[in-house]
Design a protein that fits this description.
Helix content: under 10%
Shape: globular
Number of strands: 10
Strand content: over 45%
Length: 121
């Protein structure tokens, strides 16, 4: 399956998870119809300078942010680090994270959220 950039479903979320400004989310593939694995999101996320996604936890799933371009301050479950293009952060198993664009250019991320498999009874 191939999607080209103009065909992505796009949404703008203001104050996402209690963060600042607007977050642009371009959904590369749709869960449940195109993604059959237990994937909640595969998206390209853009944050303008000063914008952020507020701190939140991931229960029963993992989220990976991979920085495509820009500079970010990431809160990795209470530990703040600076990330640049090529860096990645993985959060799951009840841990939390937040991310803020601290640079002067757009921060562009690839975001992937995958649910844990259900426990066998």
């Amino acid at each position: 399956m191939i999607h080209t950039s103009p065909s992505y479903r796009t949404e703008i979320r203001t104050a996402m998870r209690g963060g600042d400004g607007d977050v642009r989310i371009e959904h590369l593939f749709e869960p449940g119809t195109e993604l059959l694995a237990p994937t909640r999101m595969i998206s390209r996320i853009t944050l303008k300078p000063g914008c952020s996604i507020g701190f939140h936890r991931h229960e029963r799933e993992e989220e990976c942010f991979h920085l495509i371009s820009g500079t970010a301050e990431a809160d990795d479950d209470g530990r703040k680090v600076t990330l640049r293009a090529g860096d990645s952060i993985l959060t799951g198993n009840g841990a939390g994270h937040a991310i803020r664009n601290i640079g002067s250019d757009d921060l562009i991320l690839l975001a992937v959220i995958v649910r844990y498999p259900e426990a066998k009874q």
